[in-house]
Amino acid sequence: xxxxxxxxxxxxxxxxxxxxxxxxxxxxxxxxxxxxxxxxxxxxxxxxxxxxxxxxxxxxxxxxxxxxxxxxxxxxxxxxxxxxxxxxxxxxxxxxxxxxxxxxxxxxxxxxxxxxxxxxxxxxxxxxxxxxxxxxxxxxxxxxxxxxxxxxxxxxxxxxxxxxxxxxxxxxxxxxxxxxxxxxxxxxxxxxxxxxxxxxxxxxxxxxxxxxxxxxxxxxxxxxxxxxxxxxxxxxxxxxxxxxxxxxxxxxxxxxxxxxxxxxxxxxxxxxxxxxxxxxxxxxxxxxxxxxxxxxxxxxxxxxxxxxxxxx
Length: 312
Hints:
The chain has helices at residues 2-22, 40-53, 67-78, 85-90, 104-114, 118-121, 124-127, 135-149, 154-168, 179-191, 193-201, 206-217, 226-244, 276-286, 297-304; strands at 28-33, 59-64, 254-256, 263-265. The chain is mainly alpha-helical. It folds into two domains: 2-90, no CATH class; 104-304, no CATH class. The termini are far apart. InterPro entries: KAP_P-loop, NTPase_KAP_P-loop, P-loop_NTPase. Residues 11-111 form the KAP NTPase domain.
């Protein structure tokens, strides 16, 4: 033990002299990014080594971390939830600065531009089609709904954008993307993969689909968001229902009322009670005069799972 302490002391002395002689009196700065994403015992080991070996004049370590995640790692390494992770980290961190998160409307718009979505959504062949020309605004509005209301971590937002942009390469220029359902399914895949796999397995009832949707959405339902969330809910039910059986044997989501001559919804909304008229309005919009209403879940998931050919 005495020999180990002497070795550490000699190392520090040699390092301090080296910096003084070679760096013109300027500090040597090390930047360690995303330490919290490393294996927990490795992250703790790095902190310990910084403390024991590099605690000398003119060496500065800047450590970029998610403090909560690193705190959980520390508790895991030492096998106790009773450890005060903040107090533990004070042994290593002299000055602490918190970087504020970007405003909610900034980051997803930045990601949209960064991944160059306009190169697909604003293709001349798409914007001249009435059914496809609003895909850009649909995509952005859905991202706003999902990301600004449910507090999705920035890393997961970036992952969803990167993944959907790659998946878009498997769509042809005149193919339906239906951005609100496309983004929702990518959102489910990355944040709630178990539900995503259950959808593809066709083992859920429509009510179970709705219940799972409500659990994951975590969006404040109010007058401003209610209609958008219901659109996501009913669109998800429609593509799932289209998947479960062949078209000619498909369970109906609405039917013609012989008394009134109007269409009548056979399903309700888990978002809002007694909203059959609003549900029917959404179903009519989905099925009005084009193929969108006949698309099933696999139209989207095969591309999100990158099982379709990527087109350059």
